[in-house]
Amino acid sequence: MKTIDELLAEGVAGKRVFVRADLNVPLDGTTITDDGRIRAVRPTVSALAAAGARVVVASHLGRPKGAPDPAFSLAPAAARLGELLGSEVAFATDTVGESARATAAALTDGQVAVVENLRFNAGETSKDDAERGAFADQLAELADLYVGDGFGAVHRKHASVFDLPARLPHAAGGLIATEVGVLKKLTEDVARPYAVVLGGAKVSDKLGVIDHLLEKADRILIGGGMAYTFLKAQGHEVGISLLQEDQVPAVQGYLKRAEELGVEFVLPVDVLVAHEFPDLKTKAPAHPTTVAADAIPADQEGLDIGPATRELYAAKLADAATVFWNGPMGVFEHPDYAEGTKAVAQALVDSPAFSVVGGGDSAAAVRILGFDENAFGHISTGGGASLEYLEGKTLPGLAALED
Ligand code: ADP
Ligand code: MG
């Protein structure tokens, strides 16, 4: 894999460089609520610009349906990138159309442009190789060189991630190099005890990683929406909590294998429940009650881990040497359900362990809840990408950067 430093040493002055970034930031209307991903790719963009390249930055944002949708415009992200670079950033209102071609052609040495959301084009995410390839051909016309630095998207076999680097001389950006370096520390020669904390909402996405982690981790702590599938697997009723009924047998299998392998599974002992999901817009008080994890009322749902669980999890993290955390412990967007996520974040800050926080919402949670990101070993910009790496899968966007 060629590094950005090697590319810079060869000289990029006057060259048009396509940077596949991950500017998929959380938005509230047009306001960016966490700019971590933009800050993470800034050094790559600024190094290229400083070396005289004409930089064309591209990314996806959200899940538009293969056609332009103003709710998913990259314009706010482009403006924020300009602020961080301290220079004007041009913005093309399409991805490969007239605006993009004109914007790219008008760049002078050291200038930066952002093109509109890649996913406004059906070819970006198409399962059809020819359709993706045709879109990659159009993208390739915008540049002479390709730099892959959208770590959060490297697990996607998408045109800008997988097909485009095959069409242009390519290198890996600094962010991808850093992320892969950290993930190596979690897979090779791991410092022990190695604890993994999993939570969040995308239960079926995350169950796959458990299979693999059972062979690697010493301790697995479960919170968030995923906890209820585990509690159900242990025979408890979970009321109207998030539940993946079809995964219960698989989870029972994990619990059994963990016992055989001597891996400790830690599940919530108490949870915060309420009759309904909180209003995340008004943040009106939700008045939850605390119940034992085996006594969730039939008409209520679990929305955060409880106080006894917060203490238990902090204790299980205090003496770990390595921690990987993906997925909030509760609906942290509402203040009544943020304490579980805060407690885990605080435990990582207090512990001497090398700690990695992965996942778009987990990383945003840590910053939104006011933690200093430097207090963690690493805050990854990729959730799905880190998980698939830890699962031992080949990531299309990394494979494409190999020579
Ligand atoms: P990440 O982006 O870090 O990988 P996910 O996208 O899987 O995390 O999950 C984040 C979401 O999970 C948050 O929006 C949070 O509100 C939600 N969540 C956490 N706990 C629960 C729960 N008990 N019930 C429903 N949603 C939950
Ligand atoms: Mg998420």
Commentary on this structure:
This protein has helices spanning 4-10, 36-50, 75-85, 98-106, 129-140, 159-163, 174-185, 203-213, 227-233, 248-261, 307-318, 339-350, 360-368, 384-390, 396-399; strands at 16-20, 27-28, 31-32, 54-58, 89-92, 112-115, 145-148, 170-172, 194-198, 219-222, 264-266, 270-274, 289-292, 301-305, 322-326, 354-358, 378-379. With 403 residues, the protein is of the alpha/beta class. α4 (98-106) links the parallel β5 (89-92) and β6 (112-115). The chain is globular. It starts with a helix and ends with a helix. The model has no long low-confidence stretch (mean pLDDT 96). Magnesium ion (MG) binds next to α13.
Largest sheet: 6 strands, parallel
In helices, the fraction of residues equals: 25-40%
Bound small molecules, which ones?
adenosine-5'-diphosphate, magnesium ion
Structural class determined from secondary elements: alpha/beta
The beta-strand count equals 17
The separation of the N and C termini measures 6 Å
Shape by Cα distribution = globular
In the predicted model, the low-confidence regions spanning at least 5 consecutive residues are none
Number of helices: 15
The overall pLDDT, averaged over residues, is 96
Radius of gyration based on Cα positions:
22 Å
Q: Strand portion, in percent?
A: 15-25%
Strands across the major sheet, in which order? 5-6-4-1-7-8
